[in-house]
Each structure stands twice: as C-alpha cells, then as structure tokens.
Specification:
Its cofactor is Zn(2+). GO terms for molecular function: metal ion binding; peptide-methionine (R)-S-oxide reductase activity. There is one protein chain. By secondary structure, the chain is mostly beta strands. The protein has one domain: Beta Complex (Metal Binding Protein, Guanine Nucleotide Exchange Factor, Chain A). It has 1 helix and 9 strands. β5 and β6 form a beta hairpin. The longest helix has 7 residues.
Length: about 130
C-alpha cells in the first residue's frame, strides 16, 4: 500500500468508497482564493483556481483540469462519468458536458473533501506514493 496522507472517516468515505459529501456552501464551494487544488490523499495537483466557477450546484466546479491529473471512468450507476485522481485513484466527483455554463462547456463537479487548496505563492507539497 502506498504511503499517502491519513484520511479521517468522512474523507475515506468520499475518496476511497466513492461517496459524496452533502451539497452546500461549506468546503471550497464559494472559495475565490487563487492557488492550486491538490488531491487530499496524495498531494497531486488537480486544478488551478482560474478554472473554478460558480455553477450553483452545491459543490466546487471547474471547467478544466491540470493536464494528466484527472482520469475519467464510467460510473457504477451507468449514467455518469466519474473523475478520479490519476495518481492515486482517489474519487473526486463527476464530470458533465453540454450544460453551457462556461465557454468550455464542461463541469468537473468535485467534492471539497477530496482536495486541498494551496494558496498562490506557497510551495506545493511533495506528491506521495506510487501507483
């Protein structure tokens, strides 16, 4: 087992068991701070703050990811596309196309608990573990 950041029960439910945190204003839903969002489990960079937008869906939304950071997989429900950290396979949320919320016409709907924001100007932590 790779050496990743320890997760509490709620984090493990979302990241490892593919759960969903409740929607709402908590976490990073309304955060406007500049920086880089990294995977809570392995520290891999996932999203830049300039790609974050307010979709009014109850979870943080991004219309782009850092190249190679996010992998798309068919969701177990057969209807949606799950997004996972490409480095550690941690569950992030789901991706939706065709909603016309931004010019890129894509929305990464991400659980706040699946990531951490590293403010602009701060060093990114070392990425942990190997696949």
């Amino acid at each position: 087992m790779p050496n990743y950041n320890p997760l509490n029960d709620e984090e493990a439910y979302v990241i490892l068991d593919k759960g969903t945190e409740p929607p709402g204003p908590g976490g990073y839903t309304h955060t406007k701070d500049a920086g880089t969002y990294i995977c809570r489990q392995c520290n891999a960079p996932l999203y830049k703050s300039e790609h974050k937008f307010d979709s009014h869906c109850g979870w943080p939304s991004f219309d782009d990811e850092i190249e190679g950071a996010v992998r798309r997989e068919p969701d177990a429900d057969g209807r949606r596309i799950e997004i996972v950290c490409n480095h550690c396979d941690g569950h992030l949320g789901h991706v939706f196309k065709g909603e016309r919320l931004t010019d890129k016409n894509i929305r990464h709907c991400v659980n706040s608990i699946s990531m951490r924001l590293i403010p602009e100007g701060e060093s990114l932590p070392e990425v942990l573990g190997q696949k």
